Amino acid sequence: MTDSLPSDSSAADTKSAAPLARGRRWGLIVIAMCIGLVVVLWAVRRPIPTVTRAGWQEARTLWESKKPASYRIQTRVTGRQGARYDVTVEEGRVVRALRNGQPLSEGRTQATWTVEGMFDTIALDVESLERASRGQTEGARPSLLLRCQFHPEWGYPDVFQRIEWGVGSTNPDVTWKVDRFEVLP
User: Fold this and answer.
1) pTM of the model
2) How far apart are CA 125 and CA 168, in angstroms?
3) What is the widest separation between alpha-carbon atoms in the chain?
4) Helices (H) and strands (E) in the chain, counts
5) Which of 25, 92, 148, 155 is the most buried (most CB within 10 A)?
6) pLDDT in tens, 29-45
7) How many whole angstroms separate alpha carbon 170 and alpha carbon 172?
8) Do residues 121 and 107 lie in contact, with contact meaning Cβ atoms separated by under 8 Å?
9) Residues 127/142, Cβ–Cβ less than 8 Å
10) Which residues make beta-bridge pairs with 90?
């Protein structure tokens, strides 16, 4: 009867596997960190200006001075609840509003995707930031980044990005982009 002893080669394999596993683990960590950095840079380093009360007011004034009575606006929203909105306004009233091709039945949601509704949405966030800067934390969201590119001719919010940091954020990054704006006769 022969006793079998572990061979030296299996002990050597075990010793060489440990540094290899650590190397793979560090490699995965480095890759994950690089991906995270790319995501952060993509979200933060966009060429969209930060929203200010003055910039918002200037764009709103331009829109009010040039606002057509009838228009169609198509907007693409990305984020947790991404969608495409298609709204037609005639003589200042919403006559058609679609989300992903399906009718929006509530007036509140229809109005949100008109130009006036977009301005109102941005105003709520600007007011929240202003309250937070004054130390009024009730209803304020101090960890918001708001960016908007207003259309140079019409003033409407052409591209808007809202990033919310912090625990409990239900929709941390929302962006909308107007894909089409058409003045109707």
Assistant:
1) 0.71
2) 17
3) 102
4) 4, 7
5) 148
6) 878 776 666 666 655 55
7) 6
8) no
9) no
10) 93
Q: What is the DSSP letter of 7?
A: P
Is the alpha carbon torsion for 120, 124, 129, 135 positive or negative?
positive
Nearest residue to 58 (alpha-carbon basis) of 151, 130, 131: 151
Strand order in the sheet with 173-183: 102-103, 93-99, 83-90, 71-78, 173-183, 157-164, 144-150
Give the whole-angstrom CA distance, residue 164 versus residue 175: 12
What digits encode the pLDDT tens for the residues 151-162? Answer: 999 999 999 999
Are 77 and 104 in contact, with CB atoms under 8 Å apart?
A: no
Residue 96 binned pLDDT confidence (cut-offs 50, 70, 90): very high
Query: Would you tell me how many other CB atoms lie within 10 Å of the CB of residue 106?
Result: 9
CB atoms near residue 79 (< 10 Å): 15
Q: Of 128, 111, 154, 122, nearest to 49 (Cα)?
A: 122
Residue 11's identity, in one-letter code, is A
Dig out the tokens for 48 from the structure: 């969209």
CB proximity list for 9: less than 8 A, separation 6 or greater: none
Secondary element (H or E) of residue 38: helix 8-44
CB 87 within 8 A of CB 96: yes
